[in-house]
From TrEMBL:
This is Outer envelope protein 80, chloroplastic-like isoform X1. Keywords: Membrane, Plastid, Plastid outer membrane. It comes from the Eukaryota. Residues 100-120 are annotated as: Disordered. The keyword Electron transport does not apply. One of its GO terms (biological process) is embryo development ending in seed dormancy. It is found in: Plastid, Chloroplast outer membrane. The lineage of its organism: Eukaryota, Viridiplantae, Streptophyta, Embryophyta, Tracheophyta. Coiled coil: none annotated. GO terms for cellular component: chloroplast outer membrane. Its main location: plastid. The gene is LOC113702015.
Length: 699
């Protein structure tokens, strides 16, 4: 342990006698609980956790609350040979004269003592009372206590025992317990002394030792500083059992707050005032997997056990944490191939360890065919404006390794995307959770930069793309991606013929050919918050064109997005900022388009402007309406920072786009399995209104 200037703690390496009857003064009724008892008590229901965390936390709390409380130490009574005349008979003690007169503290009186009666002497209704003339507190030998503060503590604990009061033995017993309950004394014995002035009641007490050192055993995860701070105030003072109980509760509370299976299982005062603290922690002994069908019967799993086990942060030899276990269950469910996951802890034989069993119900099929539809915000005209259909063939658990293969086709009014994507979420043999994704894509999408052709002719940008990306988390909530992507792009009219200029004679390619070739090195960094309304998000992307061949494009493009939430009572304020810049020889259709559902609302897509640079800001205030529906008030602003004329052919200028603009409005949002469904109406700075519909949070 680190050295403290004001407190001395005994090193844990001290040779100590084993806990037992001969090892020094024992208190708390030998509070020795074996680790097996700890585990058995914690595991008592023997049910699947299913990670209803509040339920399990309550069970742990009940365990620590209900385990046997120690006695407040030993209340001892001295017995002397009885004399002929009986002075007091009660339900539990009898007062009798001593055989020979014993001197009191002054040496001038006779002493009598309290004695346990026989069962026949007990009366159920009435108890005799004895008039007490004096009440003293002495040490166990009958001498005056050296420390007056301890004498005051004992006297202050007395309630019934007062001078010139008539007491029953029950009254005396209760006061004995009150003295013990004060926490400063290891034993207390009531003695009655017959004096000239009457009967003197003497409480002979044995104070606890002074705290001189601490030995803590079995605390592998409990910080030593936490233990030292808990005991620091008591160093050099008489040990107080009530204070020790508070310390034990604080240590047990430390384990409970972190969901750890641990508790104080024993405490003892050794000779010399050294306190031995015994802590029991339930370590993970083994983790096994059991596959179940939907009826709960064992079955053969399709996923390899090693694929599941490497997802767990709970490892063999660790103290089991319910919080960590819950995170592991959430991680397994996010793999997308599990229908249900539960964890069952069980005692591991006679050791202080536990075995974990993962009950896993896999999804019925790892692969299949899906179809659906959606809306593309880039298409704003025509009878089927923005509508797209999609179908896909997929497998989510190739080779039992959670590898995913997806072949999909999306088709809209004029746009289409055909994509083949293979993803390995965790490359085998890698310890840093590195993922790999290989993608081949052929797409035709409208261009927002060169839209709104006066001759009503439309054209699309065709892209043939192939690439590989590697991603991994490098800090909590931070993920990074590196990749290399080859792309060939070119413009085509509605008949599929290549086009190199638009209606205004603005070039559609950077090279002047029917297509542009580029090899992009990609870097992406993303920070994702907790997902709560007040959390944050940040993303940074950079694409660098590498001119492997002279005609291949050489440029650099960066963009960043940030979002911050602030909870204001029932309402929530969100501020979003985004921006980007491009340098070098880049395709004009890759300029930043400003305006639309995810940019400046109140404008059509790309109607504010397009440039080499852009900056867009948004402020929103959302508030609950009813159930999953909430209202929102918003204001947006975007600008190309005067870079519109630097785009080859100045496509924004010839279309008389303003280059900057703002919008404001209100809307409603409905929480759904697909994400927030947004329906908004906004006015722009030209006082024109427009509806917007979107899925998901605004980018």
């Amino acid at each position: 342990m680190p050295r403290n200037d004001d407190v001395r703690f005994t090193s844990c390496s001290i040779k100590l006698p084993p806990l037992g009857h001969n090892s020094s003064i024992t208190f708390f009724s030998k509070l020795q609980f074996t680790s097996q008892f700890l585990i058995n008590s914690l595991m008592k229901p023997q049910k699947s956790l299913n990670f209803n965390f509040n339920l399990k936390k309550n069970s742990i709390t009940n365990f620590f609350t209900n385990f046997p409380k120690p006695l407040n130490l030993l209340s001892s009574f001295r017995f002397h040979p009885p004399l002929k005349s009986s002075l007091l008979c009660s339900a539990s003690l009898a007062l009798s004269d001593g055989g020979n007169a014993e001197s009191d503290l002054s040496g001038s009186t006779n002493q009598t003592v309290l004695k346990s009666p026989s069962q026949s002497q007990i009366t159920s209704r009435d108890e005799e009372r004895v008039l007490i003339s004096e009440v003293w507190v002495t040490n166990k030998d009958g001498d005056e206590l050296e420390r007056k503060d301890l004498e005051s503590e004992a006297k202050n604990a007395l309630k019934a025992s007062r001078p010139n009061s008539a007491l029953t033995v029950r009254d005396v017993q209760e006061d004995v317990h009150r003295i013990i309950a004060s926490g400063y004394f290891a034993s207390c014995m009531p003695v009655a002394v017959d004096t000239r002035d009457g009967i003197r009641l003497v409480f002979q007490v044995e104070p606890n030792q002074e705290f001189q050192g601490l030995v803590c055993e079995g605390a592998n995860v409990l910080p030593s500083k936490f233990i030292e701070d808990a005991f620091r105030d008591g160093y050099g003072k008489v040990v107080n059992i009530r204070r020790l109980d508070e310390v034990i509760n604080s240590i047990n509370g430390w384990y409970m707050e972190r969901g750890l299976f641990g508790m104080v299982s024993g405490i003892e005062i050794l000779s010399g005032g050294v306190i031995r603290l015994q802590v029991s922690e339930a370590e993970v002994n083994n983790v096994t997997i059991r596959f179940l069908d939907r009826t709960g019967e064992p079955t053969v799993g399709k996923t390899r056990p090693e694929t599941i086990l490497r997802q767990l942060t709970t490892k063999k030899g660790q103290v089991y944490s319910m919080l960590q276990g819950k995170r592991d269950v959430d991680t397994l469910l996010t793999m997308g191939i599990m229908e249900d996951v539960s964890i069952i802890p069980q005692p591991a034989g006679d050791s202080n360890k536990i075995d974990l069993t993962l009950n896993i119900v896999e999804r019925k099929s790892g692969g299949g065919i899906s179809a659906g539809g959606g809306i593309s915000s880039g298409i704003t005209s025509g009878p089927l404006a923005g509508l797209i259909g999609s179908c896909a063939i997929y497998h989510k658990n190739l080779f039992g390794k959670n590898q995913k293969l997806n072949v999909s086709l999306e088709r809209g009014q004029i746009d289409s995307i055909f994509r083949i994507n293979y993803t390995d979420p965790w490359i085998e043999g890698d310890d840093t959770r590195t993922s790999r994704s290989i993608m081949i894509q052929n797409s035709r999408t409208p261009t927002l930069v060169h839209g709104n052709q006066p001759d009503s002719n439309s054209f699309t940008i065709g892209r043939v793309t192939a690439g590989i990306e590697y991603g991994r988390p490098f800090r909590p909530k931070w993920n990074g991606t590196l990749g290399v992507i080859f792309q060939r792009t070119g413009a085509h009219d509605d008949k599929g013929n290549p086009v190199i200029r638009d209606f205004y004679s603005s070039p559609l390619t950077a090279s002047g050919n029917t297509h542009d070739d580029m090899l992009l090195a990609k870097l992406e960094t993303v920070y994702t918050g907790s997902g709560d309304p007040g959390s944050s998000m940040f993303a940074f992307n950079m694409d660098q064109g590498i001119p492997v061949w002279p005609e291949w494009l050489f440029f650099n493009r960066v963009n960043a997005r940030a979002r911050k939430g602030l909870v204001l009572g029932l309402a929530c304020f969100h501020l979003s900022l985004s921006g980007g810049h491009v340098v070098g020889n880049f395709p004009p259709h890759e300029a930043f388009a400003i305006g639309g559902t995810n940019s400046v609302r109140g404008y059509e897509e790309g109607a504010v402007g397009s440039g080499r640079s852009c900056a867009v800001g948004c402020g929103e205030v959302s508030f609950p309406l009813t159930g999953p529906v909430e209202g929102v008030i918003f204001a947006d602003y975007g600008t190309d920072l005067g870079s519109g004329t630097t785009v080859p052919g100045d496509p924004a200028g010839v279309r008389r786009k303003p280059g900057s603009g703002y919008g404001y409005g209100l809307g409603i949002r409905v929480d759904s399995p697909l994400g927030p469904l947004r329906l908004e109406y906004a006015f722009n700075d030209q006082r024109k209104g427009r509806f917007h519909f979107g899925v998901g949070l605004r980018n």
